[in-house]
Amino acid sequence: MKYANILVPYDRSESAKRALSTALEIAADEDGAHVTVFFASPVPEFESAQFLAAENMSGVVRIPPEELAAMQKEYLDYERGLLVDDLKDFVGEAVLSCADAFRIAVGQGKPSKAIIDYAEHNGVDLIVMGCRGLNAVAGMLGSVSYAVLRNASCPVLI
Fold first, then answer.
1. What's the rounded Cα separation, in Å, for the pair 82 and 15?
2. Model confidence over 108-151: pLDDT tens digits?
3. Any idea which of 11-25, 26-40, 58-72 has the lowest mean pLDDT?
4. Pair 49, 57: CB distance under 8 Å
């Protein structure tokens, strides 16, 4: 089976780095295949009921939506920079600069949902992810990998 569009959820953990190595090996065996490294940033949901309640109780003045969007973009750009720096050290400049074979994406929200949404909206053929990331609590599979495994519409290699 040919996997041309491989997604690697990446949280800078050792498990994620092993998954990335595996994905690069799989892609190397397929002509035209590419690997996308995806980081799901936990950007606060400013419209959530909890946030709005806290805002009302504290008397905080709401900033305009444009300013909020700019702040979120700045934060995602910052996270992308951290990701690029980490990947530069791990895979090297040559891999990072090969846009046809290697891509970087940053999303926001709950990691498992962000991963599944990205995969579905970008025609991902295979998700390769580590079994326990930086925030794993217990069990053989971390909660994010378990949720992706159960809900993804494409194959998942853990």
1. 18
2. 888 999 999 999 999 999 999 998 655 544 444 568 888 999 99
3. 58-72
4. no
How far, CA to CA in Å, does 79 sit from each of 2, 12, 59, 75, 149?
31, 11, 30, 6, 25
CB 113 within 8 A of CB 142: no
Specify the amino acid at residue 70: A
Please name the residues in contact with 32: beta carbons below 8 A apart, sequence gap of 6 or more.
4
Is residue 131 within 8 A of residue 139, CB to CB? The reply is: no
Cβ–Cβ under 8 Å, residues 148 and 9: yes
- Single out the residue of 127, 102, 116 nearest to residue 8, CA to CA: 127
Q: CB within 8 A of 85, min separation 6: which ones?
A: none
| Angle, alpha carbons 155-156-158 (nearest 5°) | 155
pTM assigned to the model:
0.81
- Of residues 5 and 49, more confidently modeled: 5
Q: Are 100 and 31 in contact (CB under 8 A)?
A: no
Q: In whole numbers, what is the pLDDT of the chain averaged over residues?
A: 85
